Amino acid sequence: MPFIPHTPEDTEAMLAAIGAPSLDALFDEIDPALKDPDLSAIPKGVDEMTMLADMAERARRDETGPCFLGAGCYDHHIPAAVWDIAGRGEFLTAYTPYQAEASQGTLQLIYEYQSMMTALTGTEVSNASVYDGGSGLGEAVLMAVRARRRAPARRVAVAGACHPHYLAAASTITRNQGIAIDAPCVGADGTADLDALAAAGPAAAVIVQQPNFYGALEPVDEIARWAAQAGALLIAVVNPMALGVLKPPGDWGDDGADIVCGDGQPLGIPMASGGPSFGFLCTRERFVRQLPGRIVGRTVDRAGRTGYTLTLQAREQHIRRAKATSNICTNQGLLVTAATIYLALMGGEGLRRTASACHARTRELVAALAAVDGVRQRFAAPFFHECVLDIGQPADAVAAALARRGIVGGLPLGRFDPELANCLLVCATEKRTAADIDAFAAAMSEALR
Fold first, then answer.
1. φ and ψ at 257, to 5 degrees?
2. Residue 98 and residue 333: Cα distance in Å, rounded?
């Protein structure tokens, strides 16, 4: 039967109402050649075995050598058990539980996820996740402005280099609500310029990324105290892997960050050409009513047995649209499942060891590349597992030359800042070996020549 189940009488009545002679006339702007294309060049069908062999050969063309690219998406080792468990049917095909309390397994998993994220970030409340890191920052900005509705200005300051994609996403989400997000205040050492931040005037909130977009470690205690004195809420954008060794944002300064967000990709999610991923969003308990999405709580039933329930539902699906804190937030259930399994397998000690290995590999990488003629470290600030290198030549061309040698050699920064056109942002995770680093240094030397 036709996909659209209209009877011929229905169609005739519609055409008569709009004054069109036929259905084809509705599409007369389409080139006739496109309606009847020549398909003779398309080969005949093949059997499954031939198709699989052909696709495998094509997939091999996409294989690369070691990856030194980061900038928000990282090549970490993912234990085999993570996706063996997450790929089970009850997880893989599960959807948002609209009769939530009937889905006790899903609710328990989200509760465990929330508990782990609050422990990792040093905060009191976590929601059930959002789309990604960029939209998470947008939601954090909206939260902060709602919580500071009496602030003298609906503007948000940016302390240091925050990911340009995150700022673009947040600006897109917030600008039609009259919220302005300032350009980043970055000093000569690649970290926040607090003098420029203070000179910009009052703000409802301050954003700081730790580590920042350039991989540098920001003076977050100082920034947190400055924001508190200025009467602004502090929004922390963090890499969850780095929190295995760095101070959690809930402990920054005297009172900690007010809102914490970021991308959960480092927690067991493959790079997958850039997505999908999930965003996390945590906050203080006093701002819980401003938190978008869902929160799962633990309780007991009449028989005293543990049960899980939705304790906060601030999405547009649950309340009147005008009262919702967000109409774009969602729980990335499958990816959150993988992250929860990853965190449970790794534990605090495993996360610390992995983060420490990332830092050690990056120090080795920077030392090896800085030994190549023409390469130097661009910023002197300490770093976690990314660093900006000035290679003395246009970085786009050098990155392309490295790719031809089988090395994914980092992110050219000229597309974000013309003054850094000769700079590469390089990253090393725990997966990079000494042989990988030696190969990168040799390829860099050749590419620069």
1. -70, 150
2. 13
What are the helix (H) ranges across 67-129?
Answer: 80-86, 89-92, 104-121
Amino acid in position 128:
A
Helix axes 164-174, 133-147, angle to 10 degrees: 50
Q: How far apart, in whole angstroms, are the C-alpha atoms of residue 426 and residue 379?
A: 13
Instruction: Supply 246's token pair.
Output: 């760095």
Q: Are 278 and 263 in contact (CB under 8 A)?
A: yes
Q: CA nearest 309: which of 75, 108, 174, 150?
A: 108
How confident is the model over 279-322, as pLDDT tens digits?
A: 999 999 999 989 988 899 999 989 999 999 988 876 655 666 66
Can you give the pLDDT at residue 1? 40
Looking at the DSSP assignment, which residues form a beta bridge with residue 206?
A: 157, 234
pLDDT in tens, 85-96: 999 988 888 777
CA triple 357-348-251, angle to 5 deg = 95
The pLDDT of residue 267 is above 80: yes
Do residues 136 and 262 make contact, with C-beta atoms less than 8 angstroms apart? Answer: yes
pLDDT, tens digit, 9 for 90 and up, residues 36-66: 777 888 888 899 999 999 999 998 887 888 9
Q: Report the SS3 class of residue 1.
A: coil
CB 196 within 8 A of CB 165: no
Radius of gyration for the chain, computed over Cα atoms and rounded to the nearest angstrom: 26
Residues 6 or more apart whose Cβ sits within 8 Å of residue 233: 144, 147, 148, 204, 205, 206, 227, 258, 259
Name the helix (H) or strand (E) containing 172: helix 164-174
pLDDT of 376 over the 50 cut? yes
Cβ-Cβ contacts under 8 Å for 93 (sequence gap 6 or more): none
Residue pair 241/358 in contact (Cβ under 8 Å)? The answer is yes
Burial of 243 (0-12, 13-18, 19+ CB in 10 A): buried
Residue 152: helix, strand or coil by DSSP?
Answer: coil
| Six-digit token string for 294 | 């869902």
Q: How far apart are CA 77 and CA 391, in angstroms?
A: 29
Which of 244, 65, 232 is CA-nearest to residue 154?
Answer: 232
Contact 160, 184 (CB under 8 A): yes
Bridge-based pairing of strands 386-390 and 423-427 is antiparallel
Task: State yes or no: cis peptide before 418, omega within 30 of 0.
Answer: no
